[in-house]
Amino acid sequence: MSSRKVLQHVLRSRSLQLVQRSTTLSHRLPITMTHSVMTQQRVVISLTSLLQKNFYNTQIDISKQPFKIVDYNDIKFLTENEGENSYIIDVREPKEVIEGSIPTSKNVPLSQFKDAWSLSEEDFEKQFGFKKPQKETKITVYCLAGVRSTKASEYLSSLGYENLQNYVGSWADYVEHQKGDNKK
Predict the structure, then answer these.
(1) Is 91 helix (H, G, I), strand (E, B) or coil?
(2) Residue 47 pairs with which residues in a beta bridge?
(3) Is 165 helix (H, G, I), strand (E, B) or coil?
(4) Strands 138-142 vs 86-90: parallel, antiparallel or unpaired
(5) Would you call 159 a catalytic residue per the annotation?
(6) How many Cα atoms occupy the beta-carbon half-sphere of 102 within 13 Å?
(7) How many CB atoms lie within 10 A of CB 140?
């Protein structure tokens, strides 16, 4: 089973547990239900409130999603066709990036995200080594397994960035595909 499928299974199981707990602990569990519609025993729960409390759900209402989800093929295309008006941003911590990163990606750790995006363009470039993206710039974010990149995408959306992409398979998926590509 691929790492992406394992992550989706774990997240789906966790969200169902939360829904079951919320029926008995609703006054103590800080979850905002945006849709209380049961569809094949799945409930769409506000992703923002789940992320704020470190609860995750793979059942996202796509019409309200502030970013496009991309896969390995999209990332491969971006790395081979790097444009000046496009960035791939790795939100992992520097000690994780040492182990490897997607070619052409830039590192802005999630732990520094709020401070980073409040910097002036000049200070941002000094600290991170690349120009601060403009609001219309295509930004694709990734992390290790998609959790931090989702938080980063939502944060950038809240700042007014609209051309956002999230590689939810992230580094784990990229490495898995690279192993397969190298065997060919």
Answers:
(1) coil
(2) none
(3) strand
(4) parallel
(5) no
(6) 34
(7) 25
The CA angle 55-60-66, to the nearest 5 degrees, is: 100
The amino acid present at 62, given as its one-letter code, is I
**In angstroms, how far is the first alpha carbon of the chain from the final one?**
20
Maximum separation of any 2 CA atoms in the chain, in Å: 55
Q: How far apart are CA 87 and CA 174, in angstroms?
A: 17
pLDDT in tens, 19-45: 444 333 333 333 333 333 333 333 333
**Residues 43, 75, 143, 156: which is the catalytic one?**
143
The string of pLDDT tens digits covering residues 87-100 is 999 999 999 999 99
Q: What is the 3-state secondary structure (H, E, C) of 55-89?
A: CCCCCCCHHHCCCEEECHHHHHHHHHCCCCCEEEE
CA 118 vs CA 3, 29, 33: distances in Å = 34, 32, 31
